[in-house]
Amino acid sequence: MNRSTIDLWVGVFVAAGLGGLLFLALKVGNLASFSTADSYTVNAKFANIGGLKERGPVKSAGVVVGRVAGIRFDGESYEAIVTMNLEAKYQFPRDTTAKILTSGILGEQYVGLEAGGDGMMLKNGDRLRLTQSAVVLENLISQFLFSKAAEGKPQEK
């Protein structure tokens, strides 16, 4: 092989490596899933969203059915309003519940949807009424410690 052929192959491998790094960076940043499918927007209010981020997944039965489009704070109710873009091919009843869940022990947080039984389906701009906030690990630990401390106190006579 002559020098120019070797240089060409080195360039191809360098370009492939840079492409792989770009792909991994997009995956880590939740930017790799650009969807051109039709979608509709749904809002939900949560008392605590934990570590939920924009572009986080919205899942139902373990299947990604949409993405978190935005998170803002409601100054009147002091709750977080989460806006979700759901793919149009996934239709959910109006009484669907939304929960903020965690993948694994210390994994990313996502919105989990549980379909209800209403005959009417969600439309663009609707709001999910039944929500469950994120479980904050620090609160669980402090509740456990306080309950153990209360058990150890001698009872007054």
Folded structure, characterized:
The chain is an alpha/beta fold and 157 residues long. The protein has two domains: 1-32; 39-139, no CATH class. It is built from two helices and eight strands. It has an eight-stranded mixed β-sheet with strand order 7-1-4-3-2-6-5-8, with no helix packed on it. It is flat and about 90 Å long. The mean pLDDT is 86.
Keywords:
157 residues, alpha/beta, 2 domains, eight-stranded mixed beta sheet, 2 helices, 27% helix, 32% strand
Explain briefly what this protein structure is.
By secondary structure, this protein is of the alpha/beta class. The protein has helices at 3-28, 137-152; strands at residues 39-46, 57-60, 63-74, 79-87, 97-102, 109-114, 126-128, 130-132. It starts with a helix and ends in a 5-residue tail after the last helix.
Please give the domain count. 2
What shape does the CA trace take? flat
Q: Order of strands across the widest beta sheet?
A: 7-1-4-3-2-6-5-8
Give start-end ranges of low-pLDDT stretches.
Answer: none
Estimate what percentage of residues fall within beta strands: 25-35%
- Give the helix proportion (percent range): 25-40%
Number of strands: 8
Query: What class, by secondary structure content?
Result: alpha/beta
Largest sheet: 8 strands, mixed
Give the averaged pLDDT, no decimals.
86
Work out the radius of gyration. Answer: 23 Å
Number of helices: 2
| N to C succession of SSEs | HEEEEEEEEH
Q: How far apart are the first and last residues' alpha carbons, in Å?
A: 95 Å
